[in-house]
Amino acid sequence: MAQSPACLDKKLTEEVLSFCRHIAGPCDLLAACTRGDYAPVLSLTKTVIQVLLIIHDFQPRLMNYVKVFGVNNVSVLAVDEWVFERDVERGFLGEALAGALTFPYAVLANEGYLHQQEVKLKKRLATELLQRLVLDFPELSYELRIRPEYFMYETMLTRSRLFPPTFYAMISLVRKGDAEEKLECVLHGFLEALNKLERDGVVCSSMGYFRISKHFADKSRSVTMRFVDFFKTGQRALFTSVLGIFPQILDAFSQNKELLSRIQKTLNEDSRASLGIQDPQNYVFVPTASGLVPLANRVNIEAFARKVLSTDRNARVKVENIGGILNDVYLVETSSEGRCAKAVVKRFRDWSNFKWFPLTLWSIGTRSFAVSGLSRLERECAISQLLDSNGFAVPRVLHMSPNERLVVMEYVEGEDLGKIVKRVAGSKSTVGTKKDLEVVERVGKTFAQVHALDVALGDTKPENIFVGKEGQIYLMDFEQASRKGDKVWDIAEFLYYSGHDISPFVEVGRLEQFAETFVRGYLHGGVDIGVVKSAGNPKYTKVFSVFTFPHIMFTLSNVCRKAARLKV
After folding, report:
1. What CATH fold (topology level) applies to the domain 297-410?
2. Is domain 10-283 given the CATH code 3.30.460.10 in the classification?
3. Which one-letter DSSP state was computed for residue 208?
4. Beta-strand (E) ranges in 39-160?
5. Which fold has domain 414-566?
6. Which of 132, 147, 472, 510 could be bridged to 468 by S-S, CB 3.0 to 4.6 A?
7. How far is residue 159's CA from residue 244's CA, in Å, rounded to a whole number?
8. Which residues contact 304 (CB under 8 A, 6 or more apart)?
9. Domain extents in the chain
């Protein structure tokens, strides 16, 4: 949405328009506006009015003109209509021209055309930002709640990162007395663009938030899309630097070196906050059991505990490290006025050390793993939310902080399945074994129900499955889970990792009974029997053969290969 040309009085407006008509000559003057993305930088050294002029069938295609009107220096960037619209529609010149419409601008001629191009540009930019969110948070993107302000601030910050002088334009925009009105003008165009995207099925809106549609997210999750995003970033940096007013910017710096120093200092996050520049991620939220949490959230473990578990600022907080080789895992307990509450906190570290290296080598050609802490965190939150919404028993996500790589989860009391597996394999009691086998069969049914959602759990060690006090089958640890993942891996890891803790002197009949019970429960869900059969292939057995005895591996894999006889 444009603003009235308050920076120009009536006489100067007429003089500038007359100059623009002179530049256009016999060609049609299609539209003209002042541009506010660079002007604040130049105005610190001298009065410069930047004008963007769009001309139909303009030859040459692009040209810069300068003229003095009294005390005002006017710089007119004249561009051919075809070139300008390609920059709007495809980023033909990295938005070096069209980018002016992402900041407040004053219309000099043809407001309707400029507004149409502004919405078209912001629709494309919003689409690209949505694609980037999907690429950065491939699993969590389905759950994100996005405020329109995210697109406004992220667009302007992206331009300032690629060409720092425009950052000063942002400072000028948010700190002036009419900042709210100007920001509303910028935001209005993004709202119109988002409404169009909703009609196209890219997003859906509710209660002032926008969510990415499943169809769009699935389409955007590709290597090709990431390459295109990288290419566009480089394209913007190149053309923004060499086109338009770059020489004038350099001239401004040569006259005011203090300005360059100030701009460099304001590029860090803390300085941006002190200047009133919002972090775009403050407007992207993740739903948790305790409410929406912004991606920009930063808080330590004790603050987490007080915020989520207790309303008493003076509550006593006890943090106990309860293990975790690849992550830091803590049991957090708060107590206040006789009331106690517990939660589990996981800090996701990047797996760049040797601890994960052996399994990575062993599983080459079989399974790839999410390594970065942020990637695993977003999988944990996204799949937990998905399963919880579909009625599965999972520890609810209470709070999270992507910046700190922290997730606070509900504390679940119960017995992990690893202990039950050991009892089944070593028990001599028929009664006790029957009860434990019923649990194993229910675990198989639960796996089938999860796979029916086209979700693979990724890490199905028995220790990641709990039997709650009321007999619920709790699934845990979703940092390797994914939609459309490898379901065969889930079956293979559960069975072969179970074999890791079973005595080498186990009776073969007991071992077969355990495996067959699980498989029978899984097949009861009507899933593809091929998933179970494939778990018996060498592709999967080789991964676990390094820490499970050969005769146990053979027995378990044999049950998988002959699963047809167990089909209900």
Report:
1. Phosphorylase Kinase; domain 1 (3.30.200)
2. yes
3. T
4. 48-55, 62-69, 72-80, 106-109, 145-146
5. Transferase(Phosphotransferase); domain 1 (1.10.510)
6. 472
7. 15
8. 332, 345, 399, 401, 406, 408
9. 10-283, 297-410, 414-566
Mean pLDDT, residues 69-92 taken together? 89
DSSP 366-394: T-----SHHHHHHHHHHHHHHHHHTT-B-
Other residues' Cβ atoms within 10 Å of the Cβ of residue 250: 12
Q: How far is the C-alpha of 552 from the C-alpha of 496, rounded, in Å?
A: 8
Please give the full DSSP string across 281-310, using - where no structure is assigned. Answer: GGGEEEEETTEEEETT----HHHHHHHHH-
Domains 10-283 and 297-410 alike in fold: no
- Give the mean pLDDT of the chain: 79
pTM value > 0.90? no
Note whether 502 and 462 are within 8 A (CB): no
Which one is predicted more confidently, 522 or 302? 522
380 within 8 A of 398, measured Cβ to Cβ: no
Highest-scoring range by mean pLDDT, 328-337, 362-371, 455-464: 455-464
Give the C-alpha separation, 96 to 248, whole Å: 15
Joined tokens for residue 371: 């390594």
44-75 residue pLDDT tens: 445 678 899 999 999 888 898 989 888 888 88
Q: Tokens at residue 21, please? A: 């008509």
Q: Where are the beta strands (DSSP E) in 323-383?
A: 327-336, 339-348
Q: Which of 241-245, 293-297, 532-536 has the lowest mean pLDDT?
A: 241-245
